[in-house]
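Support request, please re-run this one:
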Amino acid sequence: IVGAGPHERGVVSTASYEARKFGVHSAMPSREAYRLCPNGIFTPGNYQLYSEVSAQIFEIFNRFTPFVEGLSCDEAFLDVAGSYKLFGSAFEIGEQIRKAIREELHLTASVGVATNKFLAKLASDMNKPDGITVVPTEAREIQRFLAPLPVRSIFGVGGAMAKFLNQTGIKTIGDIQHTQFSTLVALLGENYAEHLYSLSFGRDSREVTDERIEKSISREYTF
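Re-run finished. Output below.
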């Protein structure tokens, strides 16, 4: 359990999958984490190390494509459409990236292979901590792939919104697919309804953006 000590005022930054089975999660007070998992090993963060390893991970990403959009220190979107002749299919590229991270950094990596950012992010979360998930490319198959997943899987649907949707009978992405758009607009407003409806069918037109020109300098802390 990474973060503040078990008897300190502070929060959990992250936790291993073993600790998560006890209900421990990020942003939880460390004292609560200790109550749930008294045998857990609490350790402080090492942000200098994370920064160094992050640079190594992104160096591996950049071997396969120059189009890398970072989401966090260890997560990114990669547009590999122009790399097939060099490295093989998207699936093969994903496996090569996982292999390089495992052999060079002794870490696991999860990969989502899809035709857009929403589907790729969703897929990357499905077989953690060490898996690869390939999303179908045909529209009808994408719809079937998404249908059984909970509404919370959709980007932008938090706990409160998921609870509200569940109360209206919308529990899965398939339920959104089969709800009249006008009904969604009446419940959520036009903009949010459009957001949910489009993603429920796997539609996402956002491109991978590689901003080479730095527009800001930032440093992040977890308090």
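The longest strand covers residues 68-72. The chain is about 45% helix and 10% strand.
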